Amino acid sequence: MSKRTITGLLADGKKVYIWMADNKVAKQFLQDAEAEGFMFENGAKPTEKETSDIFRIFNKDNKAFMCYVGHVGRMAFQAAKDDTIRVDYKKFASGESDYYYSDLEQMMADMEVEW
After folding, report:
1. Dihedral sign from CA coordinates of 110, 111, 112, 115
2. How far apart are CA 115 and CA 111, in angstroms?
3. pLDDT for residue 97 is more than 80
4. Chain centroid to CA 24: how far?
5. Within a 10 A sphere around the Cβ of 113, how many other Cβ atoms?
6. Residue 57 forms beta bridges with which residues?
7. Which of 6, 46, 52, 72 could cysteine-pair with 34, CB 3.0–4.6 Å?
């Protein structure tokens, strides 16, 4: 079985939001994203930036980018339509099969965790 990649989440062309359970998970995500070639649109490497509880990843001009999520993005994360994927990175990185958030109530409860 091949190792799953963050880049692999972009395959469907959907909006992809990655949720972090805590700061340790967020730091791991930044390291993993950088190792896969992700960067911020201003060219900054992920490990040069601060952690956050939610990031959005996307393709632009055949390059993998990521960005912080503001108020509008958080509403999109919570409202998630068919064109949106919400991923629990802790579960994703550990190889769990149920890393997608589809249960809104559980997701909202998880988001109340203190950072």
Report:
1. positive
2. 10
3. yes
4. 14
5. 10
6. 16, 66
7. 46
